[in-house]
Amino acid sequence: MRVHRAIGATFAVAVIAAMSGCAAPRGIDSIGGYVDDASITSKVKSRMVEDKTIDAQAIAVDTANGNVMLSGVAKTTIEKATAESIAIKVRGVKSLQNNIVVKP
Hints:
alpha+beta, Histidine-containing Protein, Chain: A, 49% helix
């Protein structure tokens, strides 16, 4: 009887340990959400690279749950506004936070 309990307890601990490793990253509801965020980030960056008025290397794009945050440095306010305009038009973007700083 004790052996059966020990095996059962060991199995239960193994199942709980395995399930905890399947959790999605903090702030992401599912792995599908993580993939969507990565796709949004990729689309925003690629559209910035295509636009020759933006220095895409100087601007970082982070996405969490469809909320995009832009950061980095722009040469002009027009470049900052263009980056924001590009990002907000990407499908799946729920909100945008523009933290790009314009060089003085």
